[in-house]
Specification:
By secondary structure, the protein is mostly helical. The chain contains one helix and no strands. Helices cover about 70% and strands about 0% of the residues. It comes from Aeromonas bestiarum.
């Protein structure tokens, strides 16, 4: 093979190795973010469940409030 062909082949191999490394890094990041998303969804569901189980507050709703005297 000619030197020019060898150089081109080495360049392509280097680019392929870099692309494979980048894909692996991106895959790791997506996996990490997926786990974090699952954890956050679980925490939100726990908060929703906790809020739904809390007794209603002692503050009257707007419908139950008597209007101010100037009305």
């Amino acid at each position: 093979m000619s030197q020019q062909l060898n150089d081109r082949l080495e360049t392509l191999e280097s680019r392929l190795a870099f692309a494979e490394y980048t894909v692996e890094q991106l895959n790791d990041e997506v996996t990490t973010q997926g786990r974090e998303l699952d954890r956050l969804k679980h925490q939100i569901q726990l908060l929703v469940d906790k809020l739904q189980s809390v007794q209603p507050s002692q503050i009257a709703s707007m419908a139950e409030e008597t209007p101010p005297p100037h009305y």
